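Tokens for chain A. Residues wanted.
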């Protein structure tokens, strides 16, 4: 079984996936949806048919002090849509503070062309979201 990491945004959704053994998280793709969640849900359904997914982890945008952002309410509505459509899969959220900052640092380190950054930043953020969840799961085992 695998897990998906999701960085949900207004126009794009970054998707990351674990390997079958839950050792690594890799960027899978960025879904361009321009505010139409039906596009995202349809693509996620296709991904679920292709991979053996049992968990979806959605990044929850929080302020630095831990309070919810305006964006958090929109993300919660998206999570509700996921729970309604994919009710046999565990769907949860994790704190996504600073994942976009880390994604930009990674892209700068890798010297990614500034015109390509928009297409990969959300996917890299999804990797960080998924890695955060994987670390939390590992810490529970200790």
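Reply:
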């Amino acid at each position: 079984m695998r897990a998906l990491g999701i960085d949900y945004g207004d126009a794009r959704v970054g998707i990351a996936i674990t390997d079958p053994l839950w050792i690594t998280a890799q960027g899978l793709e960025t879904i361009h949806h321009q505010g139409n969640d039906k596009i995202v849900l349809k693509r996620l359904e296709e991904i679920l048919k292709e991979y053996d997914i049992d968990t979806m982890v959605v990044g929850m945008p929080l302020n630095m002090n831990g309070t919810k952002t305006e964006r958090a309410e929109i993300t919660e509505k998206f999570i509700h849509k996921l729970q309604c459509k994919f009710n046999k899969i565990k769907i949860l959220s994790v704190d996504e503070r600073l994942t976009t900052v880390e994604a930009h640092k990674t892209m700068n380190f890798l010297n990614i062309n500034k015109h390509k950054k928009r297409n990969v930043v959300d996917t890299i953020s999804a990797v960080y979201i998924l890695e955060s969840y994987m670390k939390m799961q590992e810490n529970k085992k200790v």
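The chain has one domain: 2-141. The first helix runs from residue 37 to 50.
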